[in-house]
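U., I forgot to send this yesterday:
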Amino acid sequence: MKPFFIGWMGLPKGLRLFIAGAVAILVLSQAAIAALLYLGQPPRATGVWGDGEQSFEGTLLTLPYPMVRLAPADGKPARTILLVDEWKFGLPLGSDFKDGDKVGVRGYSIERNGVTVLQVSAPLDRLAAGAAMPGIDRGEQTLTGEIVDSKCWTGAMNPGDGKAHKGCGSLCLLGGIPALFIPANGSGWYVLADGEGQSLGEDIRARIGERLTLKGRLFGEGDLRILRVDADSLLNSPTG
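Result:
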């Protein structure tokens, strides 16, 4: 007679091995499926935190966000550092700081694909007054890509882009973190500003994490490229 299961009698010995094998197969198959799904995901790019606290000296730019422009040194070209505060806040600048001032800054850096964000750990040191640097007009540009907050995108969060990051990124932009536009083809990065070179403020938050086609006017030189976009056109920009 074949083993037959009756609840109040317990599991027959003849069925125990079969049940144990079936459970083991189910557990192993689920683990294998989970591993395949994980391995099939595209790699998440992220940045790298610098080795401890670092100090820099350079020229301050106040708009559309606080930035420090480092002079060429040791055979390396000039580069731009975006300044942020702790948590989800941009760096507040006192009224004493002007465009073009020579400043010293200290903090913890995050780098990704040519973008350097410095989480400032001490008040800026104003070393000398200077003249504002005029932006070089590079003409009209049409780009397809995504708006991101620079701090999370460089590596403070992972993922720091896409719809999964939309809520977090929106809060970062609300707090004044510099907004970037990252082209879909991976060709560099652009600081976003309004038509007058000011921060776009809250207008930009509604479109973060979306693939957009933006038309704007490009200013800057070297690695610093500021894309001035009209706020109304940004809100109505087509998805790319």
